[in-house]
């Protein structure tokens, strides 16, 4: 978190997306059309994989009012940020999942990466052929929960907050995580309200229109200006918003399908239907986002029925029958994202000079038995990665000619280090004063994540790389790895990024470019040039994809991160909960929970 609004991309590998649901087919989506100046009829280049096995059982029943959905978070995951705009330390899929129930995005992306205009604040977007001017039209049906209309004033308020919160000297807890993605904010010449329902955005230079819509405009989730714009200047305003971002009950004026009810850290976060929501209204009494201490405690809660939406860790597949025998459904799905091991290459890191060497990164990648982990740890419910685009789900963004550049080969990896002057001393590769002796954080709470980290440690030891494992909760993990000054870690594994905003269009600027908001210090001028080449418009789709594949192939070989596994989510739904899988969207990892409902039997 690879988003949006600042829709987060960061997720834990063991749970992949926890149980990430969105609407797939709730409202009409327009068909593709060759018109070059309107996006209301265009789709993204990503024909991302089919919806997760949509479970249509019982979907023909008429939803009945009432009931509670108890929805599990991944183990040891706290929700800790509740504004549509996020900072890096809070930019997780799980924070965004609850935020998206409270605030409607300007643009909602379907599972096939088309825009769902029925569930977007925007009704259409038009643009010029140069890709420099964009007109965003707002659907007047949307209202805030206090009855005020959602207007261009709210979009401009968001824009002004983004500008102020993106500054390098922005007060804590900022800066905004989306800064630098989609040319936001520094590539924007102006954002102007033409009327209450129209905004014009003008860029400094031409942009690939789909890239700017999916990575730039998508960040402008309207925030309630009449409720929040309280301060005399924007610096005071972002301090005010930042100080309230961790308080769910601050969100008293919302335009989404739900409103907040209560929040107790390390326990639960409760939302209930917003009676003034202008879209499809939820019929449940409430949805409870539930903290879980471990995969074992979650499995016990699923068995007892105290949880009715959750997931199964791959290490627990032997318990599958205990769930299916009581009518639970288990549905595997893959998100459109990548998972990795991060290397601390921030300037203050003592390991920067080691990880800056490509041959070191290559040797470390050769020491990763991703195929073995996929089979033995994840029981076949995982796909090895070898670049910035996952092989599954299948998309047009995956270069069909790209092969794994660094297959698992411990001996070759060790020889590569030795050829550059490293020698094994007491089991540790040593070169002068440098030693390949690292601390590696991993996300705690999951047996599979622990097993995967242990396997990496054992295999790297055969290369002379000595790793000390350090388990931490997910919220701590992303807080630490997003802090350029934190030197408590050298390697970090167990997280990843969904291309779901900012960054729906998967060109990698928010991850791999110099100074990337979700990077860990990697910098390569050629990488920067190839990323920039994907941001400009080209006359044909063939030329667009040619530049994309050049970026993709170079990134696969340059190893800004060590490529891991795209692990399937094994979603578990109780027989009394309906429409969870029917409206699942594993590609983007965002739910529209207002379609979920509960029956008495």
Automatic annotation (TrEMBL):
The keyword Signal applies. GO terms for biological process: peptide transport. Keywords: Signal, Transport. GO terms for cellular component: cell envelope. Residues 120-499 form the Solute-binding protein family domain. Its main location: other. GO terms for molecular function: peptide transmembrane transporter activity. It is found in: Cell envelope. Residues 1-24 form the signal peptide. Gene3D superfamilies: Dipeptide-binding Protein, Domain 3, Periplasmic binding protein-like II. Residues 30-70 are annotated as: Disordered. Residues 30-60 have a biased composition (Low complexity). Belongs to the bacterial solute-binding protein 5 family. This is Peptide ABC transporter substrate-binding protein. It comes from Alicyclobacillus mengziensis.
């Amino acid at each position: 978190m690879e988003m949006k609004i600042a829709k987060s991309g960061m997720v834990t590998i063991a749970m992949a997306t926890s149980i990430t649901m969105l609407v797939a087919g709730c409202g009409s989506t327009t068909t593709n059309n060759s018109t070059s100046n309107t996006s209301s009829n265009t789709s993204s280049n990503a024909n991302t994989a089919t919806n997760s096995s949509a479970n249509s059982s019982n979907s023909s029943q008429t939803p009945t009012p009432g009931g509670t959905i108890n929805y599990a978070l991944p183990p040891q995951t706290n929700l800790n940020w509740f504004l549509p705009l996020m900072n890096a330390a809070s930019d997780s899929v799980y924070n965004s999942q609850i935020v998206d129930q409270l605030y409607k995005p300007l643009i909602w992306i379907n599972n096939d990466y088309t825009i769902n205009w029925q569930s977007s604040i925007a009704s259409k977007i038009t643009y010029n052929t140069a890709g420099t001017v964009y007109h965003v039209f707002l659907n007047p049906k949307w209202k805030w929960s206090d009855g005020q209309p959602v207007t261009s004033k709210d979009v401009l308020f968001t824009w002004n907050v983004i500008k102020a919160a993106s500054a390098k000297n922005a007060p804590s807890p900022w800066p905004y995580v989306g800064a630098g993605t989609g040319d936001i904010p520094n590539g924007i010449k102006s954002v102007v309200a033409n009327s209450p329902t129209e905004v014009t955005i003008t860029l400094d230079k031409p942009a690939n229109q789909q890239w700017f819509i999916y990575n730039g405009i998508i960040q402008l989730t309207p925030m309630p200006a009449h409720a929040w714009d309280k301060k005399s200047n924007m610096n005071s305003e972002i301090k005010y918003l930042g100080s309230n971002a961790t308080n769910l009950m601050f969100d008293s004026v919302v335009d989404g399908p739900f409103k907040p009810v209560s929040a107790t850290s390390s326990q639960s976060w409760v939302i209930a239907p917003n009676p003034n929501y202008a879209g499809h209204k939820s019929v449940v009494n409430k949805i409870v986002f539930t903290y879980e201490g471990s995969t074992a405690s979650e499995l016990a809660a699923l068995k007892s029925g105290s949880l009715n939406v959750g997931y199964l860790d791959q290490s627990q597949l032997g318990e599958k029958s205990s769930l299916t025998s009581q009518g639970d459904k288990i549905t595997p799905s893959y998100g459109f994202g990548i998972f990795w091991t991060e290397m601390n290459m921030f300037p203050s890191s003592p390991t920067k000079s080691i990880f800056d060497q490509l041959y070191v990164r290559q040797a470390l990648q050769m020491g990763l038995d991703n195929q073995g982990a996929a089979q033995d740890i994840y029981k076949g419910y995982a796909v090895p990665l070898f670049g910035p685009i996952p092989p599954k789900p299948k998309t047009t963004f995956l270069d069909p000619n790209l092969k794994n550049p660094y297959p698992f080969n411990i001996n070759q990896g060790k020889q590569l280090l030795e050829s550059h002057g490293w020698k094994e001393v007491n089991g540790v590769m040593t070169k002068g004063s440098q030693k390949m002796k690292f601390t590696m954080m991993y996300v705690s709470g999951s047996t599979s994540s622990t097993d995967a980290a242990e396997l990496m440690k054992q295999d790297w030891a055969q290369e002379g790389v000595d790793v000390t494992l350090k388990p931490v909760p997910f919220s701590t993990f992303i807080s630490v790895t997003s802090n350029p000054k934190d030197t408590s870690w050298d390697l970090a594994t167990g997280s990843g990024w969904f291309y779901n905003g900012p960054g729906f269009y998967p060109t990698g600027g928010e991850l791999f470019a110099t100074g990337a908001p979700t990077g860990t210090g990697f910098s390569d001028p050629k990488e920067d040039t190839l990323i920039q080449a994907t941001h400009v418009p080209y006359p044909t789709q063939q030329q667009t994809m040619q530049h994309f594949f050049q970026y993709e192939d170079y990134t696969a070989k340059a190893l800004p991160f060590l490529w891991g596994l795209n692990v399937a989510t094994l979603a578990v739904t109780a027989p009394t909960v309906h429409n969870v899988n029917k409206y699942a969207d594993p590609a983007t990892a965002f739910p529209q929970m207002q379609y979920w409902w509960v029956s008495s039997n």
